[in-house]
Amino acid sequence: MNPEIKAFNESQSGEEVEICHQLASIIDAQLPEAESKIWHRHPVWFLDENPIVGYSKLKAGIRLMFWSGASFAEDGLAPGTGKYKDASKIYSAVDQISTSDLQRWIAKSKQIQWDYKNIYKRKGKLVRLT
What is the spatial distance between Cα 16 and Cα 75, in angstroms, rounded to a whole number? Predict the structure, then answer.
């Protein structure tokens, strides 16, 4: 596990530490080719410099977010608002994490990607990668 992500996880409180560790372990196992780092103060995994999945701390719990998740057609992920293609799920307890759901979403994140890496070059326009 990336040492910065481990430090982020350890900085959480109570059960959120376990949630973060569980999410990071599953993501690392499913995305061994990904670069992981703290980006905008949150753990994020990238494929070819394109953000794929990450999580952050909210009042309601730990928010797992897939940058292209709105295109996954998954009931378990709540689509974001606005023009972006993100979708997320909030966890307040470690037993809410379904490994099979998470593995399926990560598999979809490899196949369904919007080009966030070049969003500024395209002046906010998202293009789907093939």
Answer: 24
